[in-house]
Amino acid sequence: MTEVYSKLLSAAEAIRDRVGFTPRAALVLGSGLGAFADGMEISSAVDYGELPGFPKSTVEGHRGRFVFGCERGVPIVVMQGRVHYYEGYSMDEVVMPVRLLRLLGATRLVLTNAVGAINADYAAGDLMLIGDHILYGVPSPLIGANIDELGPRFPDMSEVYSKALLDNARDAARRLGITLREGVYLQTSGPNFETPAEIRAYRALGADVVGMSTACEAVAARHAGMEICGVSCVSNLAAGMSSAPLTHEEVQTAANAAAPRFRALISEIIAGL
Ligand code: HPA
User: Fold this and answer.
1) Which residue among 120, 158, 248, 266 is least crowded, i.e. fewest CB within 10 A of its CB?
2) Is 160 within 8 Å of 125 (Cβ atoms)?
3) Ramachandran class of 247: left when φ > 0, alpha when ψ lies in -120 to 50, beta otherwise
4) Is the C-beta atom of 31 inside 6 A of ligand 1?
5) Which of 26, 84, 258, 267 is catalytic?
6) Full-prediction pTM beyond 0.85?
7) Whose CA is nearest to atom 3 of ligand 1?
8) pLDDT confidence of 246, banded at 50, 70, 90?
9) CB neighbours of residue 76 within 10 Å
10) Which residues contact 142 (CB under 8 A, 6 or more apart)?
11) Using a 6 Å cutoff on CB, does residue 251 contact ligand 1?
12) Catalytic residue (one of 12, 25, 26, 31)
């Protein structure tokens, strides 16, 4: 058994003792959605810091705990705050919380994030369903000894984002009358925002939005056999597409402004899981 897997097993055992229910689905909260859990029927919460060997998020606005409870009657576990590669953690550590969600029993995963728009038709505040992704300049989280207990050495990635969950998300948006775009998410390492030349290059590669998280989590979750759905909130136009320089504060303010719509959509998606 690999060292990482044995750490995961101990963490899962410690949590299971305290929680006492099996979540049907898992939700990872990105910028702007941090308060999602406040509207849930919460049964318990566990800080990442309480779990031996677990990384802690160092980013402002990312809290760092698992919250267990019900949303629209569906038992879920929520990751409130994620860990990013640019914080200096290894990829193994970055995807540890997501792998733990699987060990806790969640088979379906909803990923959320804030992104910069590369597609010129997009505007700040738009919501986009992730149809596929590109990992760019970021190592695969599966490098190193394979965790055979989770999945195969060479996992297929031809359908990272589940067709059934994409349909569920489209239906949810239709029911709410929310316009939901669909596109390709490109993950960079961050933490710097991109240069205008990089954004032109990513557009040529086929990316619609850019962010600093999520795709590596999706790869680890898919490896572990989870069904995945991802929704991005456009917080800004990417570098070179507007005259203003980009700031973390702008990303947070725009993501917070879109939060009520974003929350409603995610809730409706979960109700259909
Ligand atoms: N670039 C990368 N990540 C981001 C951006 C961006 O413009 N906006 C929000 N996350």
Assistant:
1) 158
2) no
3) beta
4) no
5) 84
6) yes
7) 211
8) confident
9) 23
10) 155, 219, 220, 223
11) yes
12) 31
The pLDDT tens digits for 76-126 are 999 998 899 999 999 999 999 999 999 999 999 999 999 999 999 999 999
Question: What's the CATH code of the domain at 257?
Answer: 3.40.50.1580
Residues with Cβ < 8 Å from 46, sequence gap 6 or more?
15, 18, 19, 65, 66, 68
Gap from CA of 148 to ligand 1 centroid (Å): 34
250 lines ligand 1 (CB under 6 A): no
Query: What does the DSSP assignment read for 169-207?
Result: HHHHHHHHT--EEEEEEEE---SSPPPHHHHHHHHHHT-
* Total domains in the fold of the chain: 1
Q: Determine the residue of 136, 186, 192, 212 to mutate for testing ligand 1's pocket, defined as the one with the most ligand atoms within 8 A of the Cβ atom.
A: 212
Residue 193 CB less than 6 A away from ligand 1: yes
165-to-11, 156, 229 alpha-carbon distances in Å:
28, 18, 6
114: annotated active-site residue: yes
Q: Which domain holds residue 15?
A: 3-271
